[in-house]
Every structure is written in C-alpha cells, then in structure tokens.
C-alpha cells in the first residue's frame, strides 16, 4: 500500500494510490472506472466537458492534426492554421468588434496573461502608474502566482506567500466598497477582474446590477474590466460568453476548459480594441509574453472540432433546459427541507446542505450511487453537467441526491 509516484493536484499527499478512482473510459455524460463501475458525471469533470466524453470528431481532428504537424511554436516568425482559425472564430463571437486572442494552455495561464496584458496595455497607453488589479472575495482565478494572488479564497493561499504586489481583494458583492476604493485609488488601477458567476468559490451568481456597476466604475475611472470566463463561456450560460448572458461587456475575457471540452488543454485571453490599439501603437514594440504552447496546433484543432459540436448541436439552447430540469429538481428537495439553499445560473449551480449534513460524506454517498458531484466546502455541492446530459440522467442525479439526503 503506497502513495505511488503521482503527487495528485488538490489532494492529500498521503492518500493511497489505491484509494483514487481510476477513470478509464467515457461516453456522453458518463465515465467508467477501472472496476467497471459507470457514473453520471454531473460536474463535466472539472467544469469543462461541455460536449461530454468520447466524441469521435474531436479524436479524429486531433489525430489528423498530429499526422501533419502535432506541434510547432508560434513565437515570431511562426504561425499555424488551426491557431489562426480558432482565434478568428473566437474573435467573431466575442462581445466586442475586431477582437484579438492570445492563447495559453490553461485557465491559470489565461488569468496571468490577462493581468499582464492589462498592465502592459496601460503602460503602452501612457499610464505606467496604473498597476493595481482589483478582485473580489470568494473569487477563484487559478493557482499560478498571478491568479493565486487574485483569488479570494484564503485557504488556497495559505503557506504559498509572498504574493504578487498590487493585487487588491474587496468584499464579493459590495459595489459600494468597490466604488469607495475606486474613488480613492482609481487612478492607480490597471483592471478590475471578476468571474461573471463565481464558480469554484461555491457558485455565486452576481447580485443584480453588480456586473453593470463594475463596468460603470471601470469607465468612470478609465480602467479595464476583465471577465474571467474560464467556467462561464462556451454554452454554460446559454451563450458563447457570460458577457452576453449578463449583457455587460468587458475589455478582456479569459477562457479555457470548455473551449476544447478538455480533450486537449487550451486557454486564452480575448482582448478588445482598447487593449489591442495600445499594444499596436508602436510598430517597433514587441510583446514579450508567450508560452511554449501558445497556439499549439493540436489543441487548436481540438477546439475547432469541439466548437463545431457546441454550435451544430445547439448546446446553447440546451443549457437553460437542462439547468431548469436539474435545479428545479433540487429546489423541490429544498422545499422538502433537505437543502438549505440552491444557487443557480443557467446550467451551473450549487446546493447548500441542511444543518448537520457533511458535503464530503454526501459526495461519497453519491459516488457510491454512481453520480459525480463536487464538494467545494463542508456544506456545499456544486453541479455543472455536460450540456449533452439527457433528461433521464438528470432525473437519476436528482433522485440520487434525494436518497443520499434522506438516508
Ligand atoms: C474562473 C477560473 N479561472 C481560472 C481557473 C484556473 O484554470 P486552470 O485550472 O485551467 O489553470 C479556473 C479553474 O477552475 C476557474 O474556474
């Protein structure tokens, strides 16, 4: 009995190798483990498998790309067609005109890139004094140092300091606190950054007009607004981006996860003209930021095939239907006194368990029943099903939670 060599992410380093569930296969909304047990995945893995598992067109697109050129870097003077095509496609669907797209391999890299692009854009537009990035409590922006510093979840930060300078975290839903801060320090702010719906912090939709309030403050103080859409984009809120759902337009959008539904890691930042004009203002200036895999052609080929599925199967329209079915079901459990709270926004949500119930034990009971959820703290389970989940599978998930909470 050993831990094995794999040091797992977000896990106790002492957990035995044999205690992990080894996932070996997936199809639709289900995954199967090495013991042959099949689960309905009501979390789309880690908020990303919007098209579900086992999509042959993505596997074929990846294989075809690998047969021609699996990878080649995109630092000047190189480029490749899949990277250009995926950026064009994302720019076309961005909520602002003539956007450009910077590519990464993860959400954390996307967040760090957005923070760096905001700061460098301020420098390029003649405002080097604007360095501060303002974020919210309960925010999750990933684990590399920029995003970790920007997070509003202290447990994740414990022991990892010191953090990036010039990052300020304010109370999560308090537009007055933001307005006060901006009134005093707005002239030093490079950008305000927020998730449209706070996800990993426990799924908190914004309070009414909060996002519009951030847009107003950013405009008043001539600063940038970043939406971290690593969870919200690509159909999760029924649109390409959460910005459309909330009808608030940011200057920069980070994305990752469902851009490929996780088949190959990919992330990035979409920038509007305000940012791009600053970066393009001097033809001799060079952007000294980029990852080895920024524009990885195989990841981009996976993205194109994945976005085809989202568009052709109109998963945008399916999101609100499945959201209503699962969260209406959970609300009926709340009326029965089994849940304290149900928070939801289209196809993502959270259930807060009744007093005395432990979310980790309930997660384990659900696993036993063949349903995957995520316990983000001792009282909260989160829900983010693949957008291809069937009504029957949703009903099984709701029934399984009902049984687990009644036992
Ligand atoms: C809003 C948000 N930003 C950033 C990240 C980090 O992404 P990654 O884990 O791909 O680095 C996540 C991951 O869950 C996220 O939800």
Describe the structure.
The protein is built from 14 helices and 15 strands. The protein has 407 residues and is of the alpha/beta class. The protein folds into 2 domains: 17-54 and 314-406, Alpha-Beta Complex (Aspartate Aminotransferase, domain 1); 58-312, 3-Layer(aba) Sandwich (Aspartate Aminotransferase, domain 2). The strands form 3 sheets. Strands 4-10-9-8-7-5-6 form a 7-stranded mixed sheet, with helices on both faces. The chain has a 4-stranded mixed sheet with strand order 1-2-3-13. A 4-stranded antiparallel sheet has the order 11-12-15-14, with helices on one face. The chain starts with 22 loop residues before the first strand and ends with a helix. The model has no long low-confidence stretch (mean pLDDT 98). The structure holds pyridoxal-5'-phosphate.
Largest sheet entry: 7 strands, mixed
Mean pLDDT: 98
Tell me the series of helices and strands, N- to C-terminal. EEEHHHEHEHHEHEHEHEEHHHEEHEEEH
How many discrete structural domains? 2
Oligomeric state: single chain
Small molecules in complex: pyridoxal-5'-phosphate
Labels describing this entry:
binds pyridoxal-5'-phosphate, seven-stranded mixed sheet, 2 domains, Aspartate Aminotransferase, domain 1, Aspartate Aminotransferase, domain 2, 15 strands, four-stranded mixed sheet, 38% helix, 14 helices, 407 residues, alpha/beta
Quick description:
The chain has helices spanning 44-47, 56-69, 81-93, 107-124, 145-150, 154-157, 175-185, 210-220, 242-246, 273-279, 297-312, 315-335, 359-368, 391-406, and strands at residues 23-27, 30-33, 38-41, 100-104, 132-136, 167-170, 189-194, 224-228, 252-255, 267-271, 339-345, 348-353, 371-372, 374-377, 380-383.
